[in-house]
């Protein structure tokens, strides 16, 4: 029983995993595979000093975390813009051809799963992270390791990132729901939800049992690897051992793209995994770089979403819900029906005018549509199927929660409850404040906050920060416990450190979404300056119009709103914009491509990368002719040699400290 034998077994098992899970071509029996795995585990048990993080034995799961840690992406994980028909697709092509008349595209299946970033350091999987908000995701490494098609090690020197989609195959989904039904557990609505729920398990053994898979489809630093095209980068990661989707095609015209879309639309139900569209990317990487990005999406790629699926079901009732602004929305209660991969029982009816113009009645058979993540909606009623028992729609004139008189605002189709003391309206405001895009307080979901409100623990936003006073009472609630409470208190305290834009968005001021909150915070730097700004100062900011100014004026002229800001300050919430933009103008790294190598004493590799990003640098994992600076610690290897060959400026750790005054 030697180290040599252990390495031999690891190599064999990695080869068998690759052949089975990536190539779909098993070369050994299950019995032989299991025998080798048992031998490996026996050796590692007797020699724990030989156990490594990339051992095949680490795929079986068993690691249990207390909570998920956050990961800051080195490069933003953007989403894609959507098109829904041939005309919109050709419009996208026209925009590209204004710059590149002879453009070439790559078409890929849009896998319906969960986006993931995999980062490797010197060939070993360092971490796997979810997209999150695009800037910050969650560390799901312990669950990623259980996905056997994802290599734990690759033949690559230096830092390497690859992105893709974790998904649950249809068969795994069916098996999982059968078992859950047998165990009396609620069923998952669709494979995507099941995949997302699986990778967010704190216990990796649960994820391991669910037989997840992954396709990889993007290398953010493809040009630094001297790949000329996106297709070349896919071939490159395939050679490294990653699983790529075989249904990928290079198209020389938009007509070929449309033919591919039609072909895949016909075949979509034959694939062993769910897809919800086709992704179209400009193939040449240099062209991608010139085309660039908007704030949210790349300009060189688009997602064609399959046409919305329509189904027929019966409308049993119409109920009314209230949002955080007090808007009252009619909603259809439906006979449960599956549409676009999910079971639907509710659908929005938008507003009174929409219901009346479509003549939708309780008891009607209706057509329901749902495309991707869009909320299900009632498209039309089937009047020919009426039997006379249907009831015409009547808009309510009182709030269904506080019974205040509703008001329909001028030039709007919606009715509003104007009672600021309305319980339901208060709950929605609190839920919004704690939500992911706002204060991101993990553990304070909709249902829990509603429960805490009804129990009297949280009656206002400020009460969130006094929840510790109800610690003993909360611990005694079914489903809670000491650990859950400790995690919740920690998340609440951590939220106090959020940057100003998170607080501003969380306040729920009408018209101020996450992007607008960031724009305003970037300009005014702190909450007081924003609240004291003149109308002229506000209107001068990009995308701020009279509607936004009116909303801000209503907020700052409301005594309760000003009291809320004051109380949040007393509770210790940060009201300053924390994204440091002052360093950018002074830094030699602003706008430059920087690579880091070697062992650093000043800070960890991850910390220095985050610091460089704050200085405006584009931090990469490898050295190429596009690299401007290489920051070098001790024991630097091939990156330093390559930098010297290419004539790239090398900066020692001491020189870096001096440059940035650390």
What is the tally of beta strands? 22
Instruction: Tell me roughly what share of residues is in helical segments.
Output: 25-40%
The largest sheet, given as strand count, sense and whether it forms a barrel, is:
7 strands, antiparallel
Which term fits the overall shape?
Answer: globular
Q: Structural class from helices and strands?
A: alpha+beta
List keywords for this structure.
single chain; 662 residues; alpha+beta; 7-stranded antiparallel sheet; 5-stranded mixed sheet
Helix-strand layout with pairing:
Layout: H1 3-22, H2 30-46, E1 70-72, E2 82-83, H3 86-97, E3 105-111, E4 114-121, E5 124-130, E6 136-138, H4 141-144, E7 159-167, H5 170-182, H6 191-199, H7 204-209, E8 213-218, H8 230-240, E9 249-251, H9 254-267, E10 275-282, H10 285-291, E11 301-305, E12 309-322, E13 327-339, E14 342-348, H11 352-358, E15 365-370, E16 377-381, E17 406-408, E18 415-417, H12 423-434, H13 446-454, H14 471-475, H15 482-495, H16 500-506, H17 514-524, H18 527-531, H19 535-539, H20 546-556, H21 559-570, H22 582-586, E19 593-597, H23 605-614, E20 618-620, E21 629-632, H24 638-646, E22 649-652, H25 653-660
Parallel strand pairs: 2-11, 19-20, 19-21, 21-22
Antiparallel strand pairs: 1-6, 3-9, 3-10, 4-5, 4-7, 7-8, 10-11, 12-13, 12-15, 13-14, 13-18, 15-16, 17-18
């Amino acid at each position: 029983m030697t180290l040599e034998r252990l390495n031999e077994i690891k190599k064999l098992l990695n080869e068998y995993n690759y052949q089975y899970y990536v190539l779909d071509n098993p070369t050994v029996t299950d019995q032989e595979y299991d025998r080798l795995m048992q031998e490996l585990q026996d050796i590692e048990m007797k020699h724990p000093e030989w156990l490594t993080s990339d051992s095949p034995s680490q795929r079986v799961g068993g690691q249990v975390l207390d909570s998920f840690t956050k990961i800051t992406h080195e490069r933003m994980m953007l989403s894609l813009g959507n098109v829904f028909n041939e005309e919109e697709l050709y419009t996208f092509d026209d925009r590209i051809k204004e710059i590149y008349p002879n453009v070439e595209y790559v078409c890929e299946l849009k896998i319906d799963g969960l986006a993931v970033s995999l980062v490797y350091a010197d060939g070993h999987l360092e971490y796997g992270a979810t997209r999150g908000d695009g800037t910050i995701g969650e560390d799901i490494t312990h669950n990623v390791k259980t996905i056997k098609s994802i290599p734990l090690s690759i033949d690559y020197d230096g830092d390497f990132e690859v992105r893709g989609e974790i998904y649950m195959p249809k068969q795994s989904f069916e098996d999982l729901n059968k078992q859950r039904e047998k165990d009396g557990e609620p069923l998952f609505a669709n494979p995507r939800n099941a995949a997302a729920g699986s990778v967010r398990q704190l216990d990796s053994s649960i994820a391991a049992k669910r037989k997840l898979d992954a396709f990889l489809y993007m290398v953010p630093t493809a040009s630094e690897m001297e790949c000329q095209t996106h297709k070349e980068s896919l071939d490159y990661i395939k050679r490294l051992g990653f699983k790529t989707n075989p249904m990928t095609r290079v198209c020389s015209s938009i007509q070929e793209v449309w033919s591919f879309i039609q072909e895949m639309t016909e075949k979509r139900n034959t694939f062993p995994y769910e897809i919800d569209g086709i992704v179209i990317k400009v193939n040449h990487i240099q062209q991608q770089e010139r085309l660039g990005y908007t704030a949210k999406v790349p300009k060189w790629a688009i997602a064609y979403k399959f046409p919305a699926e329509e189904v027929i079901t019966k409308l049993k009732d119409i109920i009314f819900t209230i949002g955080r602004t007090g808007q009252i929305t009619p909603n259809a209660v439906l006979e449960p029906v599956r549409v676009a991969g999910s079971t639907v029982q509710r659908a929005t009816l938008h507003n009174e005018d929409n219901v009346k113009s479509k003549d939708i009645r309780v008891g009607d058979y209706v057509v329901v549509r749902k495309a991707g993540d869009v909320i299900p909606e009632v498209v039309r009623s089937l009047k020919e199927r009426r039997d006379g028992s249907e009831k015409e729609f009547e808009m309510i004139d009182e709030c269904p929660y506080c019974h205040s008189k509703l008001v329909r605002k001028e030039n709007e189709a919606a009715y509003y409850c104007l009672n600021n003391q309305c319980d339901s309206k208060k709950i929605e405001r609190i839920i919004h404040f704690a939500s992911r895009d706002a204060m991101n307080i993990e553990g304070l979901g909709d249902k829990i906050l509603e429960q805490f409100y009804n129990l009297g623990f949280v009656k206002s936003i400020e009460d969130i920060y006094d929840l510790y006073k109800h610690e003993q009472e909360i611990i005694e609630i079914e489903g809670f416990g000491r650990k859950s409470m400790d995690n919740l208190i920690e998340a609440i305290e951590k939220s106090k450190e959020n940057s100003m834009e998170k607080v501003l968005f969380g306040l729920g001021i009408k018209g101020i979404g996450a992007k607008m909150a960031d724009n305003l915070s970037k300009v005014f730097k702190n909450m007081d300056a924003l609240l004291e700004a003149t109308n002229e100062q506000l209107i001068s900011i990009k995308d701020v119009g009279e509607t936004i100014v009116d909303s801000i004026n209503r907020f700052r002229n409301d005594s309760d709103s000003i009291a809320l800001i004051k109380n949040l300050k007393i509770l210790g919430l940060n009201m300053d914009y924390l994204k440091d933009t002052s360093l950018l103008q002074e830094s030699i790294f602003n706008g430059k491509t920087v690579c880091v190598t070697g062992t650093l004493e000043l800070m960890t590799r991850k910390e220095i990368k985050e610091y460089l990003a704050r200085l405006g640098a584009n931090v990469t994992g490898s050295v190429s002719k596009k690299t401007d600076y290489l920051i070098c610690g001790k024991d630097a290897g091939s990156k330093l040699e390559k930098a010297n060959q290419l004539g790239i400026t090398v900066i020692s750790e001491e020189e870096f400290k001096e440059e940035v005054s650390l």
